[in-house]
Amino acid sequence: MTSRQDNILLSLPSDRVLGCLLGGILGMLLSCCLTVALLLLPGDDVPISGSPPPAEYDIEAIIEEDYVNRTFLESTASLPQPVPLTAGTLDVHPGGRAVFAVQSEIGPLHPVFEGSVVLRATEAGELEVVLSEVRVGRLPVTMLVPDHLLDDINRDVNRQLKERTGSTDVRLIAVTSDETTLHFFLVSVP
Amino acid sequence: MAEGSSMENRPGDARRTVLMGCLGAMVMGMLSCCVLLGLAIAPALDTTVPPPPISDPVKPDITIIVQEAYLDRMLTSALPGPLADGASLDIRGDDRLVISASFDVLLTELDVIITLRMFAQGGELQIGIEGIETGGVDVLDLLQVDREALGQRMSDAIQGQVEAGLGQGAEVLGVRMEENQIVITARWVL
């Protein structure tokens, strides 16, 4: 073998380095694919109650978005939170849908969790808040939200609803919304 | 001989190459995962939630629309049987609420028409009695009943219902009668 061939062989990376590089590239590609798949995870496909208001009802309560926002943190304070919340806002959309953003305090970080909920009336005449999705940045974290949290929210909301309507024997039959208000339709229980 | 030994593929070398590949895949996979997740979460750390809106003392937080048919049913269910049969409630566009009742007194059918006015005063729902007439005669004048005191007692009873329904801190901003419905606007002073 000539000295020129020796130099070429010495300058070529060894099999281990090549294996390491190849593995690294494959690992990077795989993790990229996994992350992209994770980011593209769809939220729960909750049907939006885009139905028109019921033809017959006894009482309609229209609640302004501004009021909900003024009391948002106060309302959530009574519920057990996985992380302490420092700020929150709710943006009402047509179809009984509301988009929320809450700022939490996790050590020195203050990430903002964004998501959406759907408000609807159940057959039993109760209000049901259904979580569509929650994201932190672009990362969906809906699956990390504890199940009991929504149960607690629904229990608390319905307790308040019963307290407010208890003397009138009415039940909720529909929830609709527009860009700035939530509409609750109630009928009297015979 | 030296050339032959350097180019030879031994089983141990192949295993080391695979191990290095796996190690590279793991390290690069974890690194790229962390970088991508960091990039995905970064927007959540760079966002702030707007503060809650400032309460507007003129703008209502809630609007309650009560249907005439519902009030009529409530009235008839609250009255004793013979009175309920001939009682009806009419919401007029001129902000008047007219309750008509007819009942038999000593073989004579007596028609009583009660005209009420509902309005908001000092954050409370008030009822003003315009007249309780039968056969064109004002019963209140005839019986020398204090119209204002009776109205105040009725207002207190209605206000109690409003407070129970809206909770503490509720302030009635306005009441208006529309064809077949009463519209009550209120806000909460937090």
Descriptive report:
The complex is a heterodimer of chains A (190) and B (190). By secondary structure, chain A is of the alpha+beta class. Chain A has helices spanning 3-11, 15-39, 65-77, 147-165, and strands spanning 59-64, 85-93, 97-104, 112-121, 127-136, 139-140, 170-177, 181-188. Chain A is elongated and about 100 Å long. The N and C termini of chain A lie far apart (103 Å). The model of chain A has no long low-confidence stretch (mean pLDDT 82). Chain B folds into two domains: 2-45; 62-188, no CATH class. Chain B contains six helices and eight strands. The longest helix of chain B is centred in the first third of the chain and has 35 residues, at 11-45. Classes of the chains: A alpha+beta (190), B alpha+beta (190). At the A-B interface, α2, β1, α3, β2 and β3 of A face α2, β1, α3 and α6 of B.
Keywords:
heterodimer, A: 190 residues, alpha+beta, five-stranded antiparallel β-sheet, three-stranded antiparallel β-sheet, 4 helices, 8 strands, 35% helix, B: 190 residues
Q: What's the quick description here?
A:
The complex is a heterodimer of chains A (190) and B (190). With 190 residues, chain A is an alpha+beta fold. Helices cover 35% and strands 32% of the residues of chain A.
Cα Rg of chain B: 38 Å
Count of individual helical segments of chain A: 4
DSSP E strands of chain B, number: 8
Given the C-alpha coordinates, what overall shape of chain B results? rod-shaped
- pLDDT < 50 runs, ≥5 residues of chain B: 1-6
Q: How would you write the strand order of the largest sheet of chain A?
A: 2-3-4-5-6
Evaluate the radius of gyration of chain A: 26 Å
